[in-house]
Write a structure and sequence with these properties.
It is a single chain. This protein is an alpha+beta fold. The protein has one domain (about 15-75). The protein has three helices and two strands. It has a two-stranded antiparallel ribbon with strand order 1-2. Strand 1 and strand 2 form a beta hairpin. The radius of gyration is 15 Å and the shape is globular. The chain starts with 12 loop residues before the first helix and ends with a helix.
Length: about 80
C-alpha cells in the first residue's frame, strides 16, 4: 500500500469492515515498537470503560477519555 506525498494511506475496505470504521469515525493508532494497531475511538472506549472504575463512584475511564479528547482537540486544532 503506497503512502502519498502527504503521508496518507487508504485503509482497504476489508480492513474498514473488520474494525467497523464508518466515514467520519475517529481512529486511533497504537504504536508498540515497529507494530501499529488501528482501532476506533468508540471501540477503545468500550474496551476501556470501567477498567479504572473505583468503588467511590468515580469513573477514571471517563476522566481519562475526557482529558485525551481535550489534548487531541488542542493538538489538531
Amino acid at each position: 500500500m503506497p503512502i502519498n506525498d502527504n503521508g496518507r494511506v487508504v485503509i482497504p475496505k476489508e480492513v474498514r469492515e473488520i474494525i467497523g470504521v464508518q466515514p467520519g469515525d475517529e481512529i486511533i493508532f497504537q504504536v508498540s515498537g515497529e507494530t501499529v494497531q488501528i482501532t476506533t475511538r468508540a471501540a477503545l472506549a468500550k474496551r476501556m470503560r470501567g477498567v479504572f472504575k473505583t468503588g467511590e463512584g468515580r469513573d477514571h475511564t471517563s476522566e481519562f477519555l475526557e482529558q485525551r479528547r481535550a489534548e487531541a482537540a488542542d493538538k489538531w486544532s
